[in-house]
């Protein structure tokens, strides 16, 4: 480890500080010269060689200056970190000022080294893996946790990060860092199977800081939760089908008393709700398990939009809204038609449900050359801005009673969010309470297919 040079005490600081100005020191030299010249004048007066004595005095003064210069050079070359020789005159001032500047610099340097040392030892103690790479993505430094978590050893210094972390998802992340603001979660199997959350941050010109931590426990808990919801939804399906079958048979009977009829009608609407809930839960769990969904179909947007519009008109029968359809984009979508249709249809039914009778709803497909938008605009009840950040959470409702009354499961927007995520798209919502809302599904160019 780098040891800072010991900083010696400046023994004569207090004395020298009085003379640190160059002018004061120059006066000392002048006094010496004057002293030598006076002596030379006396000797010259006594001997009669006045000029010779003066030249000799100058020569002594010059020799003294040369000797001082020799001492200065000797100190700078051989022992610059020790206390400088005690010189008077202009050389003494130069030496002192040089030594003081150098000492201050060493104090700052020692502080910096101490700071770096402290930062380094705290990084070494971290349970999170920390790796630094240079502009060429070669590993410069890694803490011990990086070995346990990512398999990066001390010997790997100087090697390219991508030759060690070769997981396809990491390579993809590495080339598009900005597209993953929260980093990525990957499954690594160094000894046991581990799930690791990795985040890359750029610093300096092109250097990278990698921070990774173990999320295996969190991943297992999440998986347990998903499996539980998936299993319970599957288990509920069969009893629900049997119940709805019987309830339907009873409801259809003609000799049934009005009291029982009302009871069966209610049972039927509740079993329908439960069915819708189970179906939505199963769809969500399928969406979370990304691999099962093929996302390479070309979805013909004009035909999908017309289909959605026809369905909307049927659903609109009880509401009497004015429905409009706008298609002015030549792009088709690349993805999974069933999931996309289900997401768009959720947005449309929401607009119809949450708009008081006789409103206006516009369904649109537009693009700006870079991105394409599926939008649903309504003149409905709107949403207070404070609800917007949580709107796509499962079972999050602005008004629970209203949502239940309109047959909502509270999962519609969660499904929309997941479907869009799978298509590299996202949802934008603009809404003003009591005026209406615009829900926009925004698709990047990578999910679009241009049709002439
Ligand atoms: P729900 O089944 O309750 O409709 P969603 O997930 O589809 O569940 O929507 C969540 C909540 O967002 C709804 O309960 C409703 O409060 C609000 N919401 C969704 N769409 C609209 C809309 N177009 N206008 C006003 N509120 C809406």
From TrEMBL:
InterPro entries: BphY/WalK/GraS-like (IPR050351), HATPase_C_sf (IPR036890), HATPase_dom (IPR003594), His_kinase_dom (IPR005467), HisK_dim/P_dom (IPR003661), HisK_dim/P_sf (IPR036097), PhoR_N (IPR021766), Sig_transdc_His_kin-like_C (IPR004358). It comes from Acinetobacter larvae. The chain crosses the membrane at residues 25-43. It catalyses: ATP + protein L-histidine = ADP + protein N-phospho-L-histidine. This is Phosphate regulon sensor protein PhoR. Residues 231-447 form the Histidine kinase domain. Member of the two-component regulatory system PhoR/PhoB involved in the phosphate regulon genes expression. PhoR may function as a membrane-associated protein kinase that phosphorylates PhoB in response to environmental signals. GO terms for molecular function: ATP binding; phosphoprotein phosphatase activity; phosphorelay sensor kinase activity. GO terms for cellular component: plasma membrane. GO terms for biological process: cellular response to phosphate starvation; phosphate ion transport. Pfam families: HATPase_c, HisKA, PhoR. It is found in: Cell membrane. Keywords: ATP-binding, Cell membrane, Kinase, Membrane, Nucleotide-binding, Phosphate transport, Phosphoprotein, Transferase, Transmembrane, Transmembrane helix, Transport, Two-component regulatory system. PROSITE patterns: HIS_KIN. Its EC number is 2.7.13.3. PANTHER family: PHOSPHATE REGULON SENSOR PROTEIN PHOR.
